[in-house]
Amino acid sequence: MNAKGDLIARLAAQGLGAPVFEALPSGPPHDLTFHARVLVGGQPLGTGGQARSKKDAERAAAEAALRVLDGVPDDAGTAPRGRWPVYAAVLAQALDAAVDLCPEDATLDEVRAEAARLYRDLLTELGHGPEGG
C-alpha cells in the first residue's frame, strides 16, 4: 500500500485538492523523532503520525487520514507503533474473514481496513506486536 499516493488520489477524486504534509523533528540530533500531519484545505485530517524518519511519519499520517476518509475510528494513539510482523498465512485468513464479515457492498478499502484490524487484534492477543514499537 502506498498511503501517500492513495490519499492524494482519493482527495483528488473527491475534489478536495492536494494534501499538504507537515513533518517536524523533535529530540536530539542523534535520536530524532518526526511528527507529521496531513492538512487538507488548511485543516488537519486524521491524528497524524510519528516515526523515526520523516518518510515513515508522513506515511503514518497519510494512513490516519485515509482511516478518517473511510469512516474507520482512528485508534492510532492507542495501537502499538512499529512494523508488524508479517505471517502470510495468518494475513490471508484475516482477509478471508474480513470478506465474510463485511457487507456485500463494502468497498475494497473497507475490507482491507477490517482485515488489518483482525490481523492486528489477533497478533496483539498472541503477543506478537510490532517490531521496534
TrEMBL record:
Annotated Pfam families: dsrm
Annotated ranges, domain DRBM: 1-71
Keywords: RNA-binding
Matching PROSITE patterns: DS_RBD (PS50137)
Name of the protein described by the UniProt record: DsRNA-binding protein
